Amino acid sequence: MNCDRIARWYALLEHAAFGWALERCRTRYLPEITCARRILALGDGDGRALVALLKACPDAQIDYVDLSAQMLALARQRTGANPRVTFLQADARMVPLPDQAYDAIITHFFLDCFDDQNAPHLIDRVAQAAAPNARWIVSEFRAEQWWSRAVVRTLYLLFKLTTSLQTRRLPGYSRSVHAAGFHCSQRETSAGGLLVSELWVRR
C-alpha cells in the first residue's frame, strides 16, 4: 500500500467520512506513554498523529516509518526539522529494527493493511524490537455488525483503487499480538463499535 496519490487529500477525506473520530482514537492512550524514551511509529501517515506524539512524549526519540514519500514529506512539514524524529521511507515488513529497543510502539490504522498471512510476521518483527514492559498502542477498525462490515468493505475497495492495497478483510491481529508476548490492558470502542483503541503491554 502506497498512499502517495492521496496523501495531500488524506486528512480532508478522513474528516469528511469520520469527522474527528480517528483523531480521538490516535490520541486516546498517549497519556500512558508519556515517559517513553524511544518510540516506533509505523505507517502513521501525514504527521497529524506525530505532532500529538511529540507533545505527549517530550523526552522520546521517534523512528517514523512509512512507505509513502508524500506522507513523509507532509509529516516533515508539520513537525519541522525536529531532531527527535528519524523519518524512514521503508516497508515495515523489511525495515531493519533494533532488538528490544523501543519502549512504545504506535500502529494507528496500519495493521488493517495486512492479511492473516502477513500480519503475524510483521507483529513478530515488531515484538522483537520491543523492550521489556513496552507499551503498544493500536487503533483499528472493527467489523462486527452488518453496517460496519459494509463500511470496511467500502474502505478496502477505495484503497484498492487509490493505493493498490490488496488486503480485503481485517486481520485477526489480536491473537498474534497476544502470542508475541503482550496483553491488552485497556480497550475502548467508539463510533458505534466501528473503531477500537487499545493499549497492549508486554508481559
Descriptors:
Rossmann fold; 26% strand; 203 residues; alpha/beta; seven-stranded mixed beta sheet
Structure description:
The protein is 36% helix and 26% strand. It has helices at 10-18, 21-27, 48-56, 69-79, 118-129, 146-163, 173-179, and strands at residues 38-42, 61-66, 85-89, 102-108, 130-141, 182-190, 195-202. α5 (118-129) links the parallel β4 and β5 (130-141). The protein is globular. The model has no long low-confidence stretch (mean pLDDT 95).
Layout of strands and helices, then pairs:
Blueprint: H1 10-18, H2 21-27, E1 38-42, H3 48-56, E2 61-66, H4 69-79, E3 85-89, E4 102-108, H5 118-129, E5 130-141, H6 146-163, H7 173-179, E6 182-190, E7 195-202
Parallel strand pairs: 1-2, 1-4, 2-3, 4-5
Antiparallel strand pairs: 5-7, 6-7
| Share of residues in strands | 25-35%
The helix/strand class is alpha/beta
Question: Cα-atom Rg, whole angstroms?
Answer: 16 Å
Put simply, the count of helices is 7
List the strand order in the largest sheet.
3-2-1-4-5-7-6
Following the backbone from N to C, one meets helices and strands in this order, namely HHEHEHEEHEHHEE
Q: Give the overall average pLDDT.
A: 95
CATH fold call:
Rossmann fold
Instruction: Give the total of beta strands.
Output: 7
- Helicity range of the residues? 25-40%
Task: For the record, give the distance between the C-alpha atoms at the N and C termini, rounded to a whole number.
Answer: 31 Å
Which CATH class? Answer: Alpha Beta
CATH superfamily: Vaccinia Virus protein VP39
- Domains, number: 1
Q: Tell me which CATH architecture applies here.
A: 3-Layer(aba) Sandwich
Identify low-pLDDT runs: none
> How is the biggest beta sheet arranged?
7 strands, mixed
What is the 3D form?
globular
